[in-house]
């Protein structure tokens, strides 16, 4: 069963946007890509959310650290957000609450170190986010491949990338010479980045001891057969089954923590 965990203090409109972000995120990295127009389009039409309203909600989420803006999208490219893990958010709220109580009890000069420490922590977090944003702006939608490798042979790069994984059947270079046209065909159909992402997803599933999928492909069958790479695309059945399984495992852990801590969060089916 799939669950969504959200703060209790969200309005109906805010919950709708939070739900869309949560459901579309990568549950390994907690990152999600979305444009404002997409959020408006995907939201419940009965709420009649405008782009300006959605923008205000997103800014509120960022200010309250429910999400972090990792990469600012432009010219139709989606913005990349990272959703703050619930247990981290609970700790953050608890720390803020404790700090506020201390300040209320004693507003003397002895409180200045607390204020300075809080400000230093905030500035450090901003710097870390800024550095991450700069890295992503330089490398967004790219893969770990340099220009020389790309110019030399992208087919061979994908072949070697496949062989670097533990959850696959590796092939010899002599086989690559005979079968590399299958890789070229797949690149034309899916593109380099999507192929590499699908390879990563397959490897995650096969090597994850908590997931049942253990069928090992060789690269040529994986790229050619109809039940191969297509199962590991964003809409692929096996990839979505894997995400649900991993999500349920995480939610079970969070539910246990929530029960023991009594945090202000709700779990919706």
CATH architecture label of the largest domain: Orthogonal Bundle
Beta-strand level of the residues, as a percent range? Answer: 5-15%
Q: What is the CATH fold-level name of the largest domain?
A: Arc Repressor Mutant, subunit A
Helical stretch tally: 10
Q: List low-pLDDT spans.
A: 140-145
* SSE pattern, N- to C-terminal: EHEHHEEHHHHHHHE
Judging from the principal axes of the Cα atoms, what is the shape?
elongated
Largest sheet: spatial strand order: 2-4-3
Q: Could you give a short account of the major beta sheet?
A: 3 strands, antiparallel
* Overall mean pLDDT: 79
Number-wise, the strands total 5
Protein structure class: mainly alpha
Entry summary:
Keywords: Coiled coil. With 269 residues, this protein is mainly alpha-helical.
List descriptors:
single chain; 269 residues; mainly alpha; Arc Repressor Mutant, subunit A; 3 domains; two-stranded antiparallel ribbon; 10 helices; 5 strands; 8% strand; Helix-turn-helix domain-containing protein; coiled coil
Topology diagram in text:
Blueprint: E1 4-7, H1 12-24, E2 31-34, H2 36-42, H3 51-63, E3 67-71, E4 79-83, H4 86-105, H5 112-139, H6 147-163, H7 173-190, H8 192-207, H9 219-224, H10 237-261, E5 265-268
Antiparallel strand pairs: 1-5, 2-4, 3-4
Molecular structure report:
It comes from Clostridium brassicae. It contains ten helices and five strands, in the order E-H-E-H-H-E-E-H-H-H-H-H-H-H-E. The protein is mainly α and about 270 residues long. Mean pLDDT is about 80; it is low at about 140-145. It folds into three domains: about 5-85, Arc Repressor Mutant, subunit A (Orthogonal Bundle); about 90-140; about 155-235, no CATH class. The strands form two sheets. A three-stranded antiparallel sheet has the order 2-4-3. A two-stranded antiparallel sheet has the order 1-5. Helix 6 (about 145-165) packs across helix 7 (about 175-190) and helix 7 (about 175-190) crosses helix 8.
């Amino acid at each position: 069963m799939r669950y969504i965990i959200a703060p209790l203090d969200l309005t109906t409109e805010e919950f709708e946007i939070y739900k869309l972000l949560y459901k579309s995120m990568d549950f390994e990295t907690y990152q999600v890509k979305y444009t404002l127009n997409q959020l408006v389009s995907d939201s419940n039409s009965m709420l009649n959310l405008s782009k300006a309203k959605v923008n205000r909600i997103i800014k509120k989420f960022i200010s309250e650290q429910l999400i972090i803006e990792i990469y600012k999208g432009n010219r139709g490219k989606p913005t990349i957000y990272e959703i703050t893990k619930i247990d981290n958010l609970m700790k953050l709220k608890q720390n803020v609450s404790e700090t506020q109580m201390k300040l209320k009890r004693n507003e003397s000069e002895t409180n200045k170190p607390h204020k300075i420490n809080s400000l230093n922590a905030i500035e450090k977090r901003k710097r870390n986010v800024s550095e991450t944003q700069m890295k992503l702006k330089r490398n967004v939608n790219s893969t770990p491949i340099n220009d020389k490798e790309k110019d030399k042979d992208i087919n061979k790069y994908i072949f070697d990338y496949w062989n670097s994984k533990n959850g696959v059947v590796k092939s010899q270079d002599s086989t690559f010479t005979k079968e590399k046209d299958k890789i070229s065909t797949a690149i034309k159909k899916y593109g380099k980045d999507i192929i590499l992402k699908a390879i990563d997803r397959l490897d995650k599933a096969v090597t994850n001891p908590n997931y049942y999928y253990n069928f090992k492909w060789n690269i040529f069958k994986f790229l050619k057969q109809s039940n191969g790479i297509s199962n590991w695309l964003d809409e692929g059945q096996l990839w979505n089954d894997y995400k649900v399984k991993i999500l349920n495992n995480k939610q079970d852990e969070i539910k246990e923590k929530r029960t023991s801590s009594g945090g202000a969060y709700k779990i919706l089916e």
